[in-house]
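Researcher: Go.
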Amino acid sequence: MPNDHAALEAPPREAQSKSFDWKMPYPSRRQPVFARNVVATSQPLATQAGMSMLAKGGNAVDAALATAITLTVVEPCSNGLGSDLFAILWTGGELVGLNASGRAPAVLHPSRFAGKQVMPERGWDTVTIPGAVSGWRALSQRFGELPFADLFEPAIRYARDGFAVSPIVAEKWALAVPHMPRDLGWFEHFTPHGHPPSPGEKWSSRALAATLEKIASSDGEAFYRGELAEAMVRHAKSASAAHTLEDFATHTADWVTPLGLDYRGVTVHEIPR
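Model: Structure:
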């Protein structure tokens, strides 16, 4: 897969035209896509990542996982390594569900929030044990065709070499700035030049690339029982959070039977609680 996007260099921030309408308000035609394999995401680079897995002989699960992993790099404002994962799959004879959401730290107690009128919206007290990585591993092991590490190749490349941030992602990225805590590392990672990236500006993170490489090479183990878990717990403790190594080590993703409800002639399915 060509990496032309990663080679783009944005003009200086002050030289970028402020009058250009990145929303592209022009008439366009929508046409149906007829194909045996289709990958659809909200970010073209993630779509390419999924298609590259199909080209390597992977199946739909491989493609979906590669897109999800790539989105943690190219659309971090909506996705992330600290997220959860839910999936419903039709296997050709059975509908199966996966609940890879994380639990709260075991020692967390209501007394920690005594006197608060609302639950906090930012910071470590809002963070459960991230489940997405366990979901990637579970789906790959049960349904994937390609080696787990192969699914990370596009994401690692974009994180290491950089990519041109797309207009919508740049907009959402900038909207996050006023809301994020100043002392938890978000600004150092996502605004390394002191500002969120503009449309077309190149962004990269060798630290994120290294993290993805550790997850890929350890089949996800490093995230829950290795050096990545240890690093996250150290950071949590520095902020007086309740997370422990045991919380990470005991995390599991659960295979579940989806619920079904008939509605106007169709059956709507959802993951049970």
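Model: The longest strand covers residues 85-90.
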